[in-house]
Amino acid sequence: MTPGVDAPTWPVEFADRYRAAGYWRGETFGGVLRERATAHPDRIALVDPAPERRTWTYRELDQRVDRLAAGFAARGITRGDRVVVQLPNVGEFIEVVLALFRVGALPVFALPAHRDTEIAYFCSFAEAVAYVVPDRHAGYDHRDLASRVKRRTPSLKHVFVAGEPGEHTALREVPCEPRPLPGPAPHELAFLQLSGGTTGVPKLIPRTHDDYLYSLWGSNDICAVDADTRFLVTLPAAHNFPMSSPGWLGVLYAGGTSVLCPKPDPATAFPLIERERITMTGLVPPLALVWTDAAAHTAHDLSSLESVLVGGAKYSEQAARRLEPALGCRLMQVFGMAEGLVNYTRLDDDFETIVSTQGLPISPDDEIRVVDDHGNDVAEGEFGHLLTRGPYTIRGYWRAPEHNRDAFTEDGFYRTGDLVRRTPTGHLVVEGRAKDQINRGGEKVAPEEIENIILGHPSVHDVSVVAVPDAYLGERSLAYVIRREDAEPLTSVAVKRFVREHGVAAYKIPDLVEFVDAFPRTGVGKISKKHLRTTAADQQS
Ligand code: J2J
């Protein structure tokens, strides 16, 4: 463990190799923005179309980021400090993140859907000094959430609000005269990203400038992102996929334009595609289905679209076949993870490969192993557990030594928890998942987190949360509950309300609740989730 990094990192011989191979270029985000602003100051970097259209040239973005970074520094936020950032797809999000990068402070990327439980955990676990929120978003007042979290979190010194601040500090008051800042070194951490999670609390993923920047330019090469790219940020901008595959950060690296989409539905996105002449975007499979259907009878001109990336969850082959003809652009499947490894189908892959595989890794130095339950490599083409190691895949979660012992092999391979098969061309096909996680159309839910909440209900004796197949989302969540014999009667609605009132993101509330008398057990007496999943799937079909 490198002091100050708080997580295992690449052994020196690997780091040297990745530098020598030219993957790690010794750049930082702050430096990249400055260089682009110098090279082409008047190009548009960013468009925030709502409520009034705002644009930022590269020069303006660089200058505003400088002033905001100076303001953060003046308030005592320094290199290595953690700042929880929870903003929707607005220009302020991009400014805040880039300003923190420039200071060397680490954004912790919360999603707009997160509530008290998650935010309080991120703030306390990361010992965050600041938390950045919108005033209201999607009918929810984030200032109240911030007040509650601040009372519970001693480390939290600042709450900055984009919009009307209430009892907190207005973000617009923060910028001040720029001053030279020491800034981070390329091998240092840039931010902490959230893991999809399989455990009671999400793990934090430490990414460095060097490794993440490689995943960006590597993605740009594969996806043909350049200065002419006009990328629509359709998914929440804080998620790893729309941020880096190739995402708004990849587009920034290439000197292109990112347009922030306030909502992902076709009624919002299609007019923007037409007006802003969007060339590329990224979608999760359920959204891709909705877009494909809506494209058939839209009056909007989508002809500027050149490629659409679909990933985050398995995209069914039937759905994939329909996308290109409907949207009139290239489909690229992407199978990625915030821990690192990202695979893309290539623009010159044949149609069958594009619709039936989840692509090839970005890097020739992404090491891929497909192993059986005992860690032995399976035969060519057989399916097994995907392990990976490489120039932009982490070697350990942040401050999680015990979990790291299970999540990584001794020689540093990350156990993705995904079950894959490799085709003769090296393309990966995702066949399933061994980790205990629900993938709700790209939104990941850790059953254990929800089980722990439900177990707190006085009428609950035991609970097991599993995935059930769903035609639209791919999977939904089902909570099997055993009631306490002597307790008050309990309804499905009451269980859902209990989880909601606990304060978690709405997508984590069980879609279905069923009451049972007992759980199937494994030979050693543990609850057999496998058995429960099969029962659930049978009942739903
Ligand atoms: C099946 N499962 C997939 C796919 C991810 C790009 C794209 C996605 C993510 C992401 C990302 C899948 N088919 N095409 O970070 O940069 C599931 C796998 C994987 C997990 C990672 C990116 N694409 N998955 O989804 O960290 O189970 O990243 O291990 O949220 O999503 O989730 P996450």
UniProtKB/TrEMBL annotation:
Q: Which residues form the AMP-dependent synthetase/ligase domain?
A: 33-398
Query: Which residues does the UniProt record annotate as the domain AMP-binding enzyme C-terminal?
Result: 449-526
Membrane topology designation: Peripheral membrane protein
E.C. code: 6.2.1.3
- One Pfam family from the UniProt entry? AMP-binding_C
User: Any idea which UniProt keywords this protein has?
Assistant: Ligase, Membrane
State its location(s): Membrane
Question: Which NCBIfam families has this protein been placed in?
Answer: DHB_AMP_lig
Q: What is this protein called?
A: Long-chain-fatty-acid--CoA ligase
